[in-house]
Amino acid sequence: MHDEDASQEAAEIARARAGDTGAFATLVRRYQDRVFGFVLRMTGAREEAMELTQDIFLKAWTALPDWRPDARLSTWLLQIARNATLDVLRRRERVGFSALDALPDVADPAPGPDAHYAGRQRQALLLEALGQIAPAHREILLLREIEDLSYADIGTALGLTEGTVKSRLARARLALLARYRPLAGGVDD
After folding, report:
1. pLDDT of residue 146 exceeding 90
2. Nearest in space to 172 (alpha carbons), one of 156, 158, 187
3. What is the pTM of this model?
4. Does 101 have pLDDT greater than 50?
5. Fold for the domain defined by 1-94
6. Residues whose CB falls within 8 Å of the CB of residue 86, separated by 6 or more in sequence, listed in order
7. At a CB cut-off of 8 Å and minimum separation 6, what does 17 contact?
């Protein structure tokens, strides 16, 4: 985020903390796609993710007076999203991940039909493998690889040290690879 954008966001946050619903609506518009995408990838259910995203922003509105200005708003929102999503997953007592459209299309250097098909097939296999790993592994991979959070931000969101984040991320990658290889016929890509 550029300095000008950061100062504008800081002003919007200050107004929202003072009760300005218009300023909070601006923040919701800025972050709703990111929060929704994270929740969708964790739950695999579009309707559930839409409802949960609304609940997350209601929780954020209620908790905004307690937000610490030294924390990044995006990290704080993803932490709320994480907790709410884990609650839903616990209640549901099943781990599912079937949203094949949850990730953007695989970048294809040679956009021919065969290469496009192979890329989509790899993406489908990767998503299937992602759905088979433990929720904690899936969560940390999504925060790092999809949400592009730093180790420090992941640590803040999950309440872990950076070293623990790195080691858990390494284990999550190994778990994903262990599930992906058999699906891909032993090929790593």
Report:
1. no
2. 158
3. 0.62
4. no
5. Rna Polymerase Sigma Factor; Chain: A (1.10.1740)
6. 135, 139
7. 64, 65, 67
Q: HSE (CB half, 13 Å, CA atoms) of 71? A: 17
Domain spans of the chain? 1-94, 111-189
pLDDT, tens digit, for every residue of 155-189? 988 999 999 999 999 999 999 989 988 888 876 65
Residue type for position 133: I
Is residue 134 over pLDDT 80?
A: yes
Query: In sequence order, what are the residues at sequence separation of 6 or more whose Cβ sits closer than 8 angstroms to the Cβ of residue 73?
Result: 9, 13, 27, 31, 67
Q: Which CATH architecture has domain 111-189?
A: Orthogonal Bundle (1.10)
Q: Are 43 and 49 in contact (CB under 8 A)?
A: yes
Report CA torsion sign: 165, 170, 174, 176: positive
Provide Rg for the chain, Cα atoms. 18
Measuring CA to CA, which residue among 26, 23, 22, 1 is closest to residue 14? 23
For residue 111, the model assigns a pLDDT of: 54
Q: How many CA atoms lie within 13 A of 112 on its CB side?
A: 3
